[in-house]
Every structure is written in structure tokens, then in C-alpha cells.
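I am still getting used to C-alpha cells and would like to learn alongside you. To get us started, please write out a protein record for me. Once you have written the record down, we can walk along the chain together.
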Amino acid sequence: MVSFLKQHQVSIDGPHTRGLDPYVVFVGAFLKQTVNDARSPHADLREPAQAFLLDLASVGPWIELTGGEAEQVQRALCRAAGL
């Protein structure tokens, strides 16, 4: 996990994150990076990210940590990833 984080630096600072729970911001950044990876031209990033987004049992608990409705947000994430 640490090597993954070193390879994929995601900024979670900015005006759009002020006032939010830092944990929710972290989960949101993780999901955003997953969408970015799902659109990657590199199969080693794209395939696991797509599989993760398409599997509600995998992505659902992460979505629920943000207070979102898992199925609805999963559909939005999949659309954003081009799935």
C-alpha cells in the first residue's frame, strides 16, 4: 500500500475540501484516483481499477464511508470512468 501511495500522489488540499472531514476527503481522493486509473491506457492500472469499480461489494464500503448511497454513487463513478 505504501508503494502505491508513493507512486500515485493525489492532492487533497484546496478550497473545495475546506470544512470537510479529512477522512471523507481522503476517501474521495482515493475514489477519484481509482476513476483516473480506470481510464488509464496502461492495463496494469486500468484493469484492477475497473474491476474494483464494477464490483459493488468492493467499492460499496468505501462509498458508504462518505455517507453516499452505494449503488447510486457506483453508477456515477463507473460513468466517470467510461464504463
The two ends are 25 Å apart (CA to CA). Residues 21-80 form one domain. The chain has five helices and no strands.
